[in-house]
Amino acid sequence: MAIYKRVLLKLSGESLMGAQKYGLSTDVLSEYAAQIGAAASQGVQIAIVIGGGNIFRGLSGVGRGFDRVRGDQMGMLATVINSLALQSALEASGTRARVLTSVRMEPVGELYTKARALELLSAGEVVIVAGGTGNPYFTTDTASALRGVELEAEVLLKGTRVDGIYTADPEKDPSAVKFSDITFDEVYERRLRVMDLTAFTMCKENDLPIVVFDMDTAGNLQRVLDGEPIGTVVKNQSTK
Questions:
Q1: Concatenated DSSP letters for 173-237?
Q2: Alpha-carbon distance 98 to 206, whole Å?
Q3: 24-69, pLDDT tens digit by residue?
Q4: Domains of the chain (ranges plus CATH)?
Q5: Which range among 4-13, 148-157, 165-174, 197-206 shows the weakest confidence by mean pLDDT?
Q6: Which DSSP string corresponds to 132-165?
Q7: Which residues contact 197 (CB under 8 A, 6 or more apart)?
Q8: Under a CB-based contact definition with an 8 Å cutoff, are residues 164 and 178 in contact?
């Protein structure tokens, strides 16, 4: 039984590559769609924000000669491509999904508004919000925090390729220890990388908990929704 009624799921663009060096993996899309569809079928309202790093990242574009604003706009369009791909995978698996975009681009997707997103969520559709915040200089982490707060989600689920937050990078430091739960203040004091500071501060100030978990393991989304302690919970008050 899911302990959450409405969640914001943040997925990285890089995770959609699978074993490839860039682009989209149909296997990953299908697996994600299966997990999301299973959760939605139980009545959990799911809004999703996806990054675009598998196609184009604005900051990396600056290093290759692109203007920062143009680079970020290209990154926003990359998130739209990923969102359409996930929508297609969800619909192919029998789950109703809708793409809303932060900048107007009908007929690719409807323009995002809180009212429209809530209407679709209440109707049982998965809502994928594409285009970041619609503004340059903001990451999709910030977009996910913003949409999570706007849509009054109970939690922000950050699906990654790692199974939580550690004291150090576990791939570089074998002695790194995983946190089961940690406060926003402790994350800041330890200088741990969870989200960019703008997104992190928005979650802290609006009391939106974050759960960092491994989305690439089949069934993990449902386990997190059921309250199983498989990732790391970041919140204003420690659960200890």
A1: -TT--B-SEEEHHHHHHHT--SS-HHHHHHHHHTT--EEEEETTSTTHHHHHHTT-S-SEEEESS
A2: 26
A3: 999 999 999 999 999 999 999 999 999 998 998 766 666 677 788 9
A4: 6-235 (3.40.1160.10)
A5: 165-174
A6: TTSSTT--HHHHHHHHHHHTT-SEEEEEESSSS-
A7: none
A8: yes
Separation between Cα atoms, residue 232 and residue 164, nearest integer Å? 5
Q: Which two tokens stand for residue 147?
A: 């949409």
Residue by residue, DSSP assigns 42-104 as TT-EEEEEE--TTT--HHHHHTTT--HHHHHHHHHHHHHHHHHHHHHHHHHTT--EEEEESS-
Element (H, E) at 31: helix 26-40
Can you give the pTM of this predicted structure?
Answer: 0.93
pLDDT at 238: 56
